[in-house]
Sequence to fold (252 residues):
Amino acid sequence: MPEDRQFVTALDRGLRILQAVSRVPGGLTNGELAEHTGLPRSSISRLVHTLRTTGYLALDPVSRRYCLKPKVLTLGYSILNEATLLERARPALQEVAERSGETVALAVRDGLHATFLEVARGRNMLAVQMAVGARLPLGSSASGLALLKMLPEAERRQVAARLRAGMTRNGIGHETFDLRLAAALSEDVVIVRDAWHRGIGGVAVPVRYGAETGTLCLAVSTAAVSEAAMRHKLAPCLLEAVRSRQLDHFGA
Fold:
């Protein structure tokens, strides 16, 4: 692949550190950052020093772990503030959470992951806990497959090929992924059980408002909620909320 002369490697490395720290509660040490990012420790030391100096990272003097500081929130504020899909979807999330008792989220695509922009927590004792900013893999989560479903065919093929390549590198067959994707493309609602995490399932509906796209995803404990309940009770609840809030729905 030809060298990209406009690509700033140092910036990319700094962002990779912020992403790594954001995914681990309690933060990461220098050594753990090297493991998570694949960067040399000498580079890690310089980068975390810069991120501390600029106010994006803090160092716990006891554990020697780096954690995010509130300044990081300023990077995403304008996106959340201007996201009309988020504003339109927020009442739908709350409606579904109240009616179903389960946790519901709005997710958007972020590379090969689905990232939660908003979460409405369910009241049920066994409701799955999700957090804003959490990410799930596109290929094995209901929200991710719903996001794949709405891509133009050529782009979907490219993304699916990248997902399969990653599975092959990790010694994982992609036959199950192919079956899940085919099912997602043939149905209005995407339903997944025990895929990205054992004991957790998801029901997802692709949505659009203007030029913005995303998916409304309802997470459940598969020990407490049957597939029949997901398909015949929770899926209609999601669809009804989407239609009542005039969110475009990508059907099969």
